Amino acid sequence: MKSTALALYWIAITIGQYAGTLMVAMVHKYTVNGSGRNWLPDRNLNRDAAKSGEDRDLELVVDKMVVDVTNGDDGNERKEVKSTQ
Question: What's the domain of life for this entry (predicted)?
Fold first, then answer.
């Protein structure tokens, strides 16, 4: 019973992905204006992020979070300051 439910779940996810792809393709096809440009630009959005280095910055942040979590630091710990008096 669980495997049937899991199979139906993944089928529903797949149908949703195909429906989204079909919708984008239809919008891209039917929204051409006189100059030949579409409402959705035909470009690689990942190309712009790679040029600016944002992906490397995000990778550094995620790596630091992984190191903190594996070392047991959840970010909520208070450090006690020893007084000199």
Answer: Eukaryota
